[in-house]
Amino acid sequence: MDQGETPLVRALENHRLKNKAAFHIPAHRQGQALPVELLGARQHIFAYDLTEVDGLDDLHNPKGAIARAQQLAAQAFGAEKSYFLVNGSSSGLQALILATCQGEDLVILPRNVHRSVLTGLIYSGARPVYIYPSLVDKFGIPAPITGQELNKCLQEHPKAKAVLTVHPNYYGVAGRLEELVKTAHGFDIPLMVDEAHGGHFPFHRDLPPDGLSCGADAVVQSTHKVAGALTQASMLHLKSDKIEPARVEDCLRMVQSTSPSYILMASLDAARRQMATQGEQMLEQSLQLARQLRDKINELPHCEVLSSSHFKDKGSVFIDKTRLVINVQALGLTGFEVKDILSASYGVQVELADHCNVVAIMGLKACKDDGRRLYEALKDMDKYKSSSRKGGKPLQPPPAQVISSPRRAWMGKSKSIELEKSAGKISADSVAVYPPGIPALCPGELISKDMVEYLVEVRSRKLHIQGSGDTSLRSIRVLDL
């Protein structure tokens, strides 16, 4: 091997030179919507790569500049206390689970939580109780859980210590969060929100209501995904009498780096200022383009954009209109195939593909030329249409049965066996199809015959897997009982 190579640097530069229309995270769109403070600092950005020297404060015991920056963030987002996260939203979600659950306490979760929540369950020892969301016809994506579903679950599990929900999901779909808050508080437990994709909600009236304004006790936001910070820079906001801030702070010290990046923290500070002072205008530009694209794409015979009308109770959902969920089944192609064609043949990079859809995210200050490129590419996609098939049904994992806490399974003795021979065993592995990173199987869950068949199909389709074991899915680790 040639030690003179820098393969990752080369890959990044090659991508930059392709000048693709960017409909994906981070929201600053490869620097086009970065806060002016970061744009102005480009020539000396590496001078910002510092540690806790005099005058720069300490993330894990802030009393100066970081403390002030976090106070400003709390005011901007409507929180009582806000915390900068340099390990992404994953660390914030894990800290909240650690702060509210211990031993084998029960925590209520929708099944479509991000896989980082599994790590929080393993850290804390908490035992999950899952609510399986319904699926939206044709699009095959999860709908939000309802207050009625949560109430039924809490009636069945009255000793649960917390609820953690997703608002919005990866597809920009949000439910009536205030109903969930009222239900959880009726059982005197906190409701926490994975708001990774909703950090821009407080800054424009045409976006869904944000978690804190609905009464949530804590929210975690990926500021880099939707609000202009650098990748991995996120925030945790508290507004609760049910979660002790000191406990959260202790837990954040456990899951965050002891050498936090000042560049990432500076990007959070700058992104907060930009959203507080210019967010409405920047989002309006993106919303205007999204409205135009939604109307034009819906006129194409082979595309359909998700709207509230696709839900059985359209008054029960909100749609983040800065992202377009485009169903492409009429082409006889999968979303994966369309995503690849858009990238390779048209220089258009979307955020997400699944079996039925592609998802385009506008980001901040969306570019009209990029919008034109996306529309023209989709309009031209008809020439790739397959008359021999209709895309088929989306692949959905079967429900899983929790046998033991994820921590017990993770810590237990395990062995590796062929996937096809694993039915009836208890998983010691986690398996998530990525994106969107929703766990199909977690440690401590029974591997049913249906689950084996699902994973074999995932393998045959060569879908991207993240997990704790063999990501080729030839084998799987099970508890050696």
Report strand order across the widest sheet. 2-9-8-7-5-3-4
Structure summary, number of beta strands: 20
Which parts are unreliable, with pLDDT below 50 for 5 consecutive residues or more?
none
Strand count, sense and closure of the main sheet?
7 strands, mixed
Radius of gyration over all CA atoms, rounded: 22 Å
Distance between the termini: 43 Å
Helix tally equals: 14
How large a portion of the residues is in β-strands, by DSSP E? 15-25%
Mean pLDDT: 93
Shape: globular
Structural class: alpha/beta
Helix-residue proportion: 25-40%
Describe, in plain words, how this protein is organized in 3D.
The chain has 481 residues and is an alpha/beta fold. 35% of the residues lie in helices and 16% in strands. Strands 2-9-8-7-5-3-4 form a seven-stranded mixed β-sheet, sandwiched between helices. It has a four-stranded antiparallel β-sheet with strand order 10-12-15-14. It has a three-stranded antiparallel β-sheet with strand order 18-17-19, with no helix packed on it.
